[in-house]
Amino acid sequence: MGDADRTRIAREFRSFTEAAAGAGSPLYVELAAAVAEDDRALDLLLDLPTDKQQPMLLFGAIAFLGAPPADADELRAVIRDDGDRIRETMRTRFTQTNEPARCAAVLTAIGDLRGPVGLVEVGSSAGLCLYPDRYSYEFDGRPVGPRSAVHLTCTTSGPVPVPAGLPEVVGRVGIDQNPLDPSDPDDRAWLRALVWPGPNAASRLERLDAAAALAAREPATVLTGDLVDRLGEALDLLPADCTPVVFHTAVLVYLERDRREEFAALVRSLGVRWVAQEAAGIVPGVPRDLARPDSFVLSVDGRALAVTAPHGGRIGWL
Ligand SMILES: C[S@@+](CC[C@H](N)C(=O)[O-])C[C@H]1O[C@@H](n2cnc3c(N)ncnc32)[C@H](O)[C@@H]1O
Prior knowledge:
Elements: H1 3-22, H2 26-37, H3 39-46, H4 55-65, H5 72-92, H6 103-110, E1 116-122, E2 136-139, E3 142-144, E4 151-157, E5 168-176, H7 185-193, H8 201-217, E6 221-224, H9 231-236, E7 243-249, H10 257-269, E8 273-279, E9 296-300, E10 303-308, E11 314-317
Parallel strand pairs: 1-5, 1-7, 2-4, 4-11, 5-6, 7-8
Antiparallel strand pairs: 2-3, 8-9, 9-10, 10-11
Helix pairs in contact: 1-2, 1-3, 3-5, 4-5, 4-7
The structure holds S-adenosylmethionine (SAM).
S-adenosylmethionine binds at residues 94-99, 102, 122-125, 129, 175-178, 226-227, 249-251, 254-255.
C-alpha cells in the first residue's frame, strides 16, 4: 500500500464530508475532514483491506467500542490509544445500517396489491424493513394503520398513492450475506453505532430499538448468503397463494455493476413484483440524473416512481 492508496482514502473521507453535511451530521463532517489530514488515522486504514476502509465502518467501530468522539482531538486520541480494537472491529463488522423508516416508501409501492403478500427482502441486515404491516404511518398527517410502537411520519409531494390500509403480509424472508439478529445485544449495539450523530439521532435510535424489539418477537426467516444465489430458495419459502414481492433498499450499491445486471435479469424473469429503493443509477434502467446523490429513487419493476430521502421521511412522486 503506497501513497496512491493514502491519497485515495483521504479523498474518500473528504467526499464523505459532503454526505455527512447532507445528512445533518456536522460532527461527522469534522471527523471525516480530520481523518483525511491525519497520518495515524490513515495508517490504521491502510492496514485494512480496501473494502474495510469506509468512513462509516471507522466511525461505527469507534462508536461501538465507546461513543462517537466529541471532536477531532478526541478522535485522534481514540485512534492513538485504541487502534487495535478499532481495526479488529472493522475487520469483523460490515456497514449494515438498518432503517425501518424506509418502509413508508415500500408501502406506497405495494399498497395496490390485493390479498396476501409474501415479502422477500434481499440485503435485509437485521430484517427491520420486513415488517411494513406492523408499523403505523402518517403521510402529511394522514394516518395509515393502527398505532404501532414504530410510527413512521412521511412528507409527500406529487400524487403519492398513499394506501388506505396495511397489506396482509403472510410471509417474510430475508437474505443477507451477514444477517444481524435483532434479539442479539451485540448486533443491536452495532446497529445503534451506525446511526449518525446529529439532530435526527435520538428519533432514529428510538425507532431502531422499537423495530428490533418487534422483529425479535416475530422473527422472520433469514437465509445467509448472496442475494443472487439464494433468491430462488427464498421465494420457495413463501406460502402458496400469495403475491410475491422482492424488495431491497440501500443494497445494490454494494454489488459490482455486472452482478446488479445479473440480479435485475433474474428478478425480471421470476414474475414477482420488484420494489427497489436505491441511489439513482444503481438499479439497471433507473437513470443517474433522476436524483441527487444524497437521495434515493423508488422503482417498481425497474420503473422509477419517486425520489425518497435515504433514511425515510420524504417521498416525491415523479
Ligand atoms: C446498508 S444495509 C441495508 C439494510 C436494509 N435493507 C435497510 O435498508 O435498512 C445493506 C445490507 O446488504 C447486505 N448485502 C450487501 N451485499 C449483499 C449480497 N451480495 N448478498 C446479500 N446481502 C448483501 C449487507 O450485508 C447489509 O446487511
